[in-house]
Amino acid sequence: MDNYKSGFIAVMGRPNVGKSTLLNSLLHQKIAAVSPKPQTTRFQQFGILTLDRGQLIFVDTAGLHHPHHTLGEYMNEGAKSALKDADMGLLIVDGSDIPPRDEDRLILDILGEIEPTPAMVIAMNKIDKLTSQQVKEHANAYQGLIPDAELIPISATRGDHLDQLTDTLIQYLPEGPPLFPEDQVTDLFERDIAADMIRAAAMIHLKHEVPHAIAVRIDEFKERNDHGAYISATLFVERESQKAIVIGKNGSMIKRIGITARKEIEEMSGRKVYLKLRVKVRKNWRNDENTLNLLGFKK
After folding, report:
1. Which of 12, 39, 172, 254 is the most buried if burial means most Cβ atoms within 10 Å?
2. CA 225 from centre of chain
């Protein structure tokens, strides 16, 4: 174990920059829920990458944003706590966008509250959508966010420069033995990942504000020997009108959500899954601290 490195890396960035996609690509396994809509990630999740020269423990956090409700405040606080407790930070930015946005700059407020300031690396994602000249121009703009940070252009979907990214991150980690078994890839139980994948499926199929008003609770998760797993879950929404949309005409929408979620859970777990979904109304749950605590959100 001479010169072996291990440590925690807080993965930061505004919503929809590709944090969870990057995590899945680095681990060569889908452990983090992904959808085209922002704020798919709400809970922290470890992604554990064990290499011959080091163990990188990525802490996937919710996207940094200007919150409009108590849930948003909880999500931002969780991201801040992750960086404060980590050995270093990895800021993901969307290289295909006009750089940088106000939400990208929120990292500066967080870094200003942490002493000593952790080492930071910037990964400029989505370069597969840019010309080589645009890569240079956008990299210069994003470098201005944290001038001392090393910036690496990457594509999480295509795999560009991911080896360079891991090599760079290992350099900043402290020396020490692995903190997790080499075959462990996340700290979450399958039921927790399943809940995220159900919500991501809802975000894929639903429009406007409805997907962000959904929370998922796993009510039952049972193994059925050779018959796979049985999962029962409740989708909480804030209004009766949202409940009707999620269920759909003759149950068509909840069926579509269930089919998509089941396929994702089966791919993740490697076995057949029977999935049963229901929808309940819990008014204004995103601003109800008691409900947020019951659903697992902590400030």
Report:
1. 12
2. 31
pTM: 0.69
For the chain, the distance separating the N- and C-terminal CA atoms, rounded to the nearest angstrom, is 37
Per-residue model confidence as pLDDT tens digits over 244-270: 999 999 999 999 999 999 998 888 888
Per the CATH hierarchy, to which homologous superfamily does domain 190-294 belong?
A: K homology (KH) domain (3.30.300.20)
**Residue 196 banded pLDDT, cuts 50, 70, 90:** confident
Residue 82's closest CA among 27, 45, 121? 45
- Identify residue 140 by its one-letter amino acid code: N
Residue type (1 letter), 282: R
Q: How far apart are CA 61 and CA 81, in angstroms?
A: 10
pLDDT tens string 8-32:
999 999 888 988 889 889 988 877 6
Angstrom distance (rounded) from CA 275 to CA 120: 41
The dihedral over CA atoms of 109, 111, 114, 119, expressed in degrees to the nearest 10, equals 180
Task: Report domain extents, the chain.
Answer: 5-172, 190-294
| Architecture of the domain delimited by 5-172 | 3-Layer(aba) Sandwich (3.40)
Strands 54-60 and 45-50: antiparallel
pLDDT tens across 269-288, in order?
Answer: 888 999 999 999 999 888 88
